[in-house]
Prior knowledge:
- The chain has 609 residues and is α/β, with parallel strands linked by helices.
- This is GGDEF domain-containing protein.
- It holds the Pfam family GGDEF.
Amino acid sequence: MKSSAITKSGLESLIHSKNFRCFFQPIFDVHQFTAIGYEALVRSPFEPPTYNPAELFDKAFEFGLIAELEQCCRRIAIKQFVKLGLEGFLFLNASPLAIEQTKHKASSMPAMLRDYDFDPARIVIEITERYEATDENLLKTGLQRYRDLGFKIAIDDLGTGHSGLKQWSEVRPDIVKIDRYFISGCQHNIVKRELIRTIFELGKTTGVSVIAEGIENEDEYLLLRKLGMKYAQGYLLGKPQSEPETQLPKLLVEKPLQKDTAKPNAQFELSKLIQRIEPIFADISCKAVYSQFKAEPNLKTIAVVDDMQLPMGMVYRDELTDLLSSDYGHALYDKQPIAKVMRPVSLMVDEHSNLDDVSKFITDHSEFDLHPEFIVTTKGKYAGLASVRSILKMMTEEKIMHAQQANPLTMLPGNIVIERKVNQLISHKHDFQLAYFDLDNFKPFNDVYGYAAGDQVIKLVADVIVEYSNKHGNKHNQENFIGHVGGDDFVVVFQSGDALACCQEILLVFEKRIIQYFELEHVKQSGYFAVDRAGNYTLIPLLSLSCGIISPDIDVISSVHDVSVQASKAKKVAKEATRGEVITLRQGTNGQKPELGCINQANVAYLRN
């Protein structure tokens, strides 16, 4: 039977017979590597070339049977989903036109779900771009019916046609999918890349989950991971199948680790500035050193080392030339060992030294104006020379990079800089602790008070974290690294000091300062009424700040990805904790309950290896 030969009565009979095939495409959490849900794709029963389901839906649109066809497809999808025993969410496509139609009643869904004993909270109604609504108010009413039943709402193909920021603002979805157009070739297109980054940031700010769909090659996937992607869908990860994949392909689980370890993001490390100039020994004659300078016109400085390659001093071309050109200079010094005239080492730094510390030392000491070279060592032994000019140039480039990657709301370093910092610590085997801060009940706050007020709260979080992280860092002469992951998520990297005490103080101070952002009535009743994530209109507690701390085993972790997985676990535990509890959660506890302790008005999870 050809689709071109379909009549209205024929299509009605087909709908009644439910003679369709159902496939499911997985949607993965790329941090946990498991499927969080599946999009149902019902296929036409016709043989090729009329197998394309779009043709069948176009016929349904022509005959005014869109609502009936979609309802039929939903029942088939739910039945098959339950039969396969799939976990997670079931994404069901729905056109705006069908949703607004009264005959497309959401009230028929509860009975359908009862038939298959299916939890409505696991249903995601995905609004497609095809067949736009004729009346926006009817569409909103139809969507609210689904929300009242506990369904989640998703916008498909964000960025195309009507599926833009206006629809995001009006529909207030739980989930949005970035259209394939923006994903395709994003690794080669800076505009697409920045738009995707902005969408990820907007999702975090508004509490909306963002899915990148249509990923078809590895380069796209790896870039999206770096830009902050958490949920993904596409042929690279899993094709639509009657029995879909439930785990992310092993190749993609391992590949990001290979990429990270191969590129430790050490773009601004001091080791890159080293000039491998051969040193000399202390007993070599001044005449021999002078001859070396004459033979190499561009050579300005030579380091002097002992038998163990430990730096002893520096010899400068201009000073040695002046010394030997004086009256009787050659007669007095030619046969003398260079140790007699060398200068003591003014600055000697390890190749893994903090650039800020090196830069501060240089700017505080004027002798570098005359001799702008210093010695770089590896584990105490001579590695080469570096110039002041090169390190100041590096610092400038790094500050420019920080500014380019900074979060526009808080001006704190963003994901790329955070990744570089963590990878740098891992590659150098430096112990550290990482605190992950996150606001609880932020989406309802945005709904009640508006996005402008939400931005002010995010700034408050940033201000408190910066103030007290720096305060604790100064106590130990160690500047803590602070980054803004996006939305209401922040991280602090501690290399010394009491991270737990610092985080407790941050939460206590936030608890006091946030009160001024609420109306008095809401403070008195300890919350406000709004729609929660389950679609229920209920009393939402006042905003609070949670924090999870991890102490990665530097000998076990291999990349920033490992740290991200641990931080996600700590964040989850912190958000589930009751305010006022400190949780010490050690990995490998085999499901044992975490240890609980109490502090005043704070909520901290402490996760160790």
